[in-house]
Amino acid sequence: MTKISLGLEYATISACRISLMSPELLDSVLLQTDFPELKLHASGKVRDVYNLDKDRLLFVATDRISAFDYVLATGIPHKGRVLTQISLFWFEFLRDLVPNHLLTADVSQYPAPLQKYADQLRGRSMIVARADMFPVECVVRGYISGSAWKEYKATGRVCGIELPKGLRESDRLPEPIFTPSTKAASGHDENISFADMSKLVGPELSRQLRDLTLAIYVKAADYARQKGIIIADTKFEFGRTPQGITLADEVLTPDSSRFWPADKYAPGRAQESFDKQYVRDYLEEIRWNKRPPAPALPAEVARRTSEKYVEAYHQLTGLELDV
Ligand code: Q0N
């Protein structure tokens, strides 16, 4: 091939296509919930929690997606249902190890005043038992990544745990480690040592939560690995209910964990995210300054990301999410 240089300077106009999501898909995307008869209990980047009565809460997973700490302007089709169905799968898978807060995800069993929202709630919501939540995030890591990699590079330790020398980014750890954190005033999580946690919630409960966290992670990560997904790390929240120490919140979803495609795993660098890679690549490409307002996503990026969430659900459970 011969390259012909004209030696001219010319402005490039990059191909700029406006892509729209099909009306059917757009219609199914839920960005905000509003149930005027219920009081909002808490709202996160993705999930909204409502008070039902003194013993029960309603969790609703929207299709919102966050990247680089901000919720984006575009929703991801089916994402709320994928997150909810993955948590339900793990609650069942883990039921011999730990009680969980799930009461029902069967919308026909929800209180009568919610029946008019059945179409909005189906597949993406659950009613859970109100728990007395412990003020710690129970983080477990089987691989070194993210804030733990930063801490290790700086100190050789993570949350006070001495690690072997010479680890590379994303390396598998000799054994999973428990690295609790607390919600700092900034809203960001702050890694704490086991001794700090013991001062916060007591040594006996700390041991119980650590042992439970490690046992749950080992069982789930072994299973996921056989299905081609590495769960590099994850975060659990526990609380106390009449059933004792109870697994709450969402569990082992791509939003609460790092999911890596096992067939692309290569230590020595940051790993691709199973679910958010197209989003991150796009945001880097447009050189968003990572300050609000967060941009919208092209329909194609939202569609391909949606496919990754649906694929993660299928790969983990062997089930099809009806789309
Ligand atoms: C609870 N969070 C933090 C929304 C969810 N079973 C429970 N009983 C009482 N409170 C809670 C639970 C649970 N789970 C936990 N808020 C309320 C989790 N948030 C994080 C952001 O998204």
How is this structure best described in words?
With 323 residues, the protein is α+β, with helices and mostly antiparallel strands. The chain is built from 8 helices and 17 strands. Strands 8, 9, 12, 15, 16 and 17 form a 6-stranded antiparallel β-sheet that branches. Strands 1-2-3-7-6 form a 5-stranded antiparallel β-sheet. α7 (277-285) runs antiparallel to α8. The protein is globular and about 55 Å long. The chain starts with 22 loop residues before the first helix and ends in a 6-residue tail after the last helix. The structure holds ligand Q0N. Residues 42, 44, 47, 49, 57, 101, 128-131, 133, 237, 239, 248-249 line the site of ligand Q0N.
Name the descriptors.
17 strands, globular, 24% strand, 29% helix, 323 residues, alpha+beta, 8 helices
Query: Helix-strand pattern, N to C?
Result: HEEEEEHEHEEEHEEEEEHHEEEHH
User: How much helix is in the residues?
Assistant: 25-40%
Number of strands: 17
Give every kind of bound small molecule, once each: ligand Q0N
Shape: globular
Strand content: 15-25%
Q: Mind describing the biggest β-sheet?
A: 6 strands, antiparallel
* Beginning-to-end CA distance, first to last residue: 46 Å
Mean pLDDT: 93
Catalogue the unreliable spans.
1-14
Q: How much is the radius of gyration in Å?
A: 21 Å
Number of helices: 8
Structural class category: alpha+beta
